[in-house]
Structures are given as structure tokens and as C-alpha cells.
Amino acid sequence: MLNIATTIERRPLDAPFGLEIVGADLTRDLDGATRKAIHDAWIDAGILLFRDVRNDDMAQMRLSTIFGEMEPAATADLNDPVNQFMMTLAYDPQDPSGRPNPFYRVDGIDRAGWLGWHWDQSFMPTIVRGAVLRMTEPARTMGETGFIDAIQAYDRLSPDMQKRIEGLEVVYEFNPDFCSGQFGFPTDIERLDVGATVKPGSHYNFPPVVHPLVITQMETGRKVLKLSPMHARYVLGMERAESDALLTELAAHLGDPAHAYFHKWQENDMVVWDNWRIVHSANGVPLDCKRSARRTTIAGDYKVGRYLDPTLDRDREVKRLVD
């Protein structure tokens, strides 16, 4: 198919960051200049919204390739068996086999699919570049996805705190129980084992990894508060009490909802976020409410993460060179 010249419009979201891109018809190929304009907008804004009810799997994959190559998600059991690059995230109260377990009670509401603030795959040494989420069946109530710009969060830190955290590193380890050790999560969160049969992620084996607490956006030189509260465990080389206090303070600062954008989904909306910069969360849905989404993962490595065990990191480097 021939590339079609396209004129797009950048519209600010009702948020401190982010843009809606209008005029990009992703049901067909886009010309190179338009693809570059979309990529540049993404670097500027952190997240982009594409709103078109005609969006489908092909449109989503076409959009994803603007930002890099797609890759299967690390949580492989969620990937589509027919299309390994497409993940299905669905909840249907009439289908117990497909329920995300466990459920959580947050702010007095029992929810399926709730997630606290995080960046994707922080429990891996290679941090994916981004993701595209498309809501194929929005929830009739709730179901918002939250986004926060960690560049703006860094800029809001005091100069003393910016100086204090420069050069620090955080150890991350996969933890599927959101009532167990997360920083910045609600203090009143309760795990509900209604209908639960298998602890989510209990079959995963992700060795601990290390990531810097501050990184620099390579395209602009802006600094990023690179903290993922969901799987952060401790600051490397710091006494545990001091580490816990620091991560608690930083997670509360980063996750301040006053600086967040909460997207209210319409059918086949697509949102793409820069995973090296943006943290996100999922509000979840009431237990009697159906919802379905599709997600693609954009490959990448910002080349500053590593395994805590240096032996594993050496093996990783050998594999990289062989591949």
C-alpha cells in the first residue's frame, strides 16, 4: 500500500502533559513525515491519545511500529497465542476462568484489575520502550488508566532532594501481592480471595534487578525520577530504615494524583506511553463490570539496568553479543 500524506493536529489533553493526535488515520499506512511528527510529539509529551472507533489490531500494530519494534510481554501467559505481540487484558464476571486474581478492596470498593503506580517490567534488567493500550470494551463504570510524568515529578523535587538521590540505585523484585511491601500504595488496601485459585505471578521467576533512581532523557537532557513503586524493594547500599523512609517519601511525591492524568476510555481509544518516563496505574472495575483491552509492547533498552547478581548480568551480556 502506498504511503498517504497526512496532516495531523496536536491537541493538549486536560492534564499537565500529554497530547491527543487528531487526523492520523491508522487504518492505512502513514507517510514518513507523519510518522516522525507523531514520534516527536511522543518525546515532547510522554503520552499520546488516538481516538477513532475504527481502530483495530492492525491499526494498533501500525501505531506501535512508529516508536520501535514490538516484542512479546515478559508475562508470557497473557500474550495472544495467535499473535505473540498482542496481549489481552480482560475481565468478565461471567467467566471465572479469565478472572484476574486476586481482587482488591481499595477506598472501600471491591475491584478487578486494580494496579498501583508503576512502569512496565521494572523487575527486568531491560526496560521496554513503551506500550500501546487499546480499550476494545470500556467498562460501564470506572476503569480509568492513570498516568504521571516522572520528568515533571523530578522537577518538583527540592534541589536538596535532587542532589540527595543523584547516583542512587534501587533494587526491584517481582511481587504479585499488592498488600506486601509496595511503596506509595493505599494504606487501606485489602486483598480479596473471592474465586481465587492461583496466585498471580506465582509461577514467574524473575531474579532481582537494579535500576538508577534518576536517569536522563537521551533526546532532551531532561532528568527523570525513575522510580516504579510497585516492585521497588530497597535502595542499594543504604540501611533499610533510611531506604524505606526515602522510597516512601519519593513514592508519595511521584504518585500525587494532583499531577496525574486519568484517561476515561471510549471504544477503541489507543494511548501510547513512554515507559522510560511515564508511570501508570489502573483504577480497576467493580466485580460485576466487564472490560476488555489489547496491549502491544515496544522493545527497547535504556542500557542502565542490570541484574543484582553479577553472574547473571555477565550471562546476559554474553547472550546479547551472541545474538
From TrEMBL:
<dbReference type="InterPro" id="IPR051178">
    <property type="entry name" value="TfdA_dioxygenase"/>
</dbReference>
<protein>
    <submittedName>
        <fullName>TauD/TfdA family dioxygenase</fullName>
    </submittedName>
</protein>
<keyword id="KW-0560">Oxidoreductase</keyword>
<keyword id="KW-0479">Metal-binding</keyword>
<dbReference type="Pfam" id="PF02668">
    <property type="entry name" value="TauD"/>
</dbReference>
<feature type="domain" description="TauD/TfdA-like">
    <location>
        <begin position="10"/>
        <end position="296"/>
    </location>
</feature>
<comment type="similarity">
    <text>Belongs to the TfdA dioxygenase family.</text>
</comment>
<dbReference type="InterPro" id="IPR042098">
    <property type="entry name" value="TauD-like_sf"/>
</dbReference>
<dbReference type="InterPro" id="IPR003819">
    <property type="entry name" value="TauD/TfdA-like"/>
</dbReference>
<keyword id="KW-0223">Dioxygenase</keyword>
<keyword id="KW-0408">Iron</keyword>
<dbReference type="GO" id="GO:0046872">
    <property type="term" value="F:metal ion binding"/>
</dbReference>
<dbReference type="GO" id="GO:0016706">
    <property type="term" value="F:2-oxoglutarate-dependent dioxygenase activity"/>
</dbReference>
